[in-house]
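As a warm-up, study this chain.
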Amino acid sequence: MRILYRAGFLVLAIFLILFAVSNRDTVSVAFWPLPFLVDMPLYLLCVLSLVIGTLIGVATAWMAGHGKRRELRSRRRRIEALERELTATQSQIGNHSEPATRQLRPLVKRESVNAR
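Now compare it with the structure written out below.
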């Protein structure tokens, strides 16, 4: 699995390097409501767009999972409380029970072996 991860990373790195070398031309980026004009290489604009999009996607997924994480925390606390209660109950039962070495007598009398 580690080899596949490294091979994929290597392919992605080579692709990004080739993309950066091929797209070194400068482009002007204007942000409409702001009076700024930024000149940057095209590859940098593309990479920054991908990074910002990824961060927005990760943040959205993290916020969407808030309810599930809260429910899991609640269930984990409930399980821990039930395990503590079970342990306490088992220790109480262990203290009040009779020793297991006592054997019960059979209800039916056995005939002696010599009576046959």
